[in-house]
Backbone:
């Protein structure tokens, strides 16, 4: 269970609970602060507020440990090495997920430069899934994908959710929000969120 | 040792060459005459002043005055480092990091040379300490300012990559390592290049100076080699300290990238 109380970052101020195995869709117009909120929960930017995972305060564990449990996945993932497989600690273990998302199993030695934005987005997701985090903060994880890949990503995340992973899924697609979210948080320009149960 | 002494009068003819540059600038409308005049006058004043200061220091041989002179040299070096950065470091670190690292690196290797190999009497004799420090300082300064500049600029450019690593639970050192490597490589390049080119492309100023003063070329070479080794060591130490220190300042205790602390200078 992830509890967020009075999380403040710039204009944002939110409180909510996220149970194990729950997926919440996060919606709101562009620029309203969805990315800021997700980054703040992962403690990637300075912010105030009380954030706990199963009662353990975020500040009680080193930040890298917190981010392995509560993992933010950017819409456009970054790459620090030249080839795909250098970004994975165990590339062979990642292969089943890679192929499940429709990527060829020989893409390990491919240079990052060669990847399309959709391929990067899926590989970035697989890279994060390898951590087996308790909470996933997905920032528009299918924004660059075709409909077939969107379905593959949604089904893969659904499996993780049924295994007990909690997810905050930010999306501009209303139909997707209703499909993946057991509830929908709508973020407004004043930095608050409102819950819509579909 | 015998060498040909110059009087101030001997400098008039060479100085006319600078006047010639100025005339060229006026004729060709390069608009450099003002800058040229200021630079030339600054050079004359600074060097003559340094000549008298050194004469005083050599006569005094006082640890206090020598230390003060060394301190002022370090201050000018850190001023130069700051001037070469595109971004500002936060608070006192803007000057402090450069000053601390040049002092640490140049100071350490200068002391090493004075205490182990040269052993002048007394060890702080300004005739040895100050020229040595000056040469090491100049090169260390170049390494540090290059390293810091590459570090800050790469961090801005590679922000997505660094934050991806952080978001996946990397520590700040793991996330910054590729950028730190680039910065260190840039800091080391000038000294590697000058070691490779020395003797073939360039005759170093100190060695030429000793030769003009009547020292046997082979003895001058030995001095130059020692200086180059000291410079290489000082540059390595200083660049390493500055880049690691800079990397620490650009992140925080929660392993976050803090580019907000580094506003770009308004020029």
Residues:
């Amino acid at each position: 269970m992830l509890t967020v109380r009075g999380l403040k970052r710039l204009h944002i101020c939110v409180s909510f609970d996220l149970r194990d195995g729950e997926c919440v869709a996060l919606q709101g117009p562009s620029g309203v602060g969805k990315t800021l909120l997700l980054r703040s929960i992962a403690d990637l930017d300075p912010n105030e507020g009380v954030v706990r995972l199963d009662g353990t305060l975020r500040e009680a564990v080193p930040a890298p440990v917190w981010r392995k449990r509560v993992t933010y996945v950017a819409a456009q993932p970054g790459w620090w090495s030249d080839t795909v497989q250098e970004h994975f600690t165990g590339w062979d273990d990642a292969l089943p997920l890679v192929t499940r998302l429709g990527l060829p199993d020989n893409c390990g030695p491919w240079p990052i430069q060669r990847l399309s934005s959709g391929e990067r987005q899926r590989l970035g997701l697989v890279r994060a899934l390898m951590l087996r985090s308790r909470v996933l903060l997905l920032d528009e994880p299918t924004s660059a994908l075709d409909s077939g890949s969107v379905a593959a990503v949604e089904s893969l995340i659904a499996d993780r959710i049924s295994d007990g992973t909690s997810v905050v899924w930010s999306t501009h697609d209303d139909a997707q929000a209703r499909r993946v979210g057991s509830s929908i948080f709508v973020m407004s320009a004043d930095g608050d969120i409102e819950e819509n149960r579909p | 040792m015998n060498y040909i002494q110059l009087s101030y009068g001997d400098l008039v003819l060479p100085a006319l060459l600078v006047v010639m540059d100025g005339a060229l600038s006026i004729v060709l409308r390069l608009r450099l005459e003002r800058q040229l005049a200021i630079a030339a006058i600054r050079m004359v004043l600074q060097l003559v002043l340094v000549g008298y200061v050194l004469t005083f220091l050599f006569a005094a041989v006082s640890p206090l005055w020598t230390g003060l002179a060394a301190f002022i040299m370090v201050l000018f070096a850190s001023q130069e480092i700051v001037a070469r950065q595109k971004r500002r470091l936060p608070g006192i670190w803007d000057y402090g990091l450069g000053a601390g690292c040049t002092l640490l690196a140049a100071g350490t290797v200068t002391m090493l040379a004075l205490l182990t190999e040269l052993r002048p009497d007394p060890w702080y004799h300004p005739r040895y300490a100050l020229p040595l420090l000056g040469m090491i300082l100049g090169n260390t300064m170049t390494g540090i300012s290059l390293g810091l500049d590459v570090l800050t600029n790469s961090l801005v450019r590679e922000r997505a990559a660094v934050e991806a690593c952080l978001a996946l639970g990397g520590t700040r050192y793991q996330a910054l390592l590729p950028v730190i490597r680039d910065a260190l490589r840039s800091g080391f390049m000038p000294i590697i290049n000058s070691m490779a080119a020395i003797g073939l492309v360039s005759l170093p100023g100190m060695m030429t100076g000793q030769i003009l003063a009547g020292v046997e070329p082979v003895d001058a070479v030995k001095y130059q080699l020692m200086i180059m080794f000291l410079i290489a060591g000082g540059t390595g130490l200083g660049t390493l300290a500055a880049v690691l220190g800079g990397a620490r300042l650009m992140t925080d205790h929660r392993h976050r990238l803090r580019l907000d602390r580094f506003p770009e200078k308004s020029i």
The CA atoms of residues 138 and 144 of chain B lie 10 Å apart. Chain B has a mean pLDDT of 91.
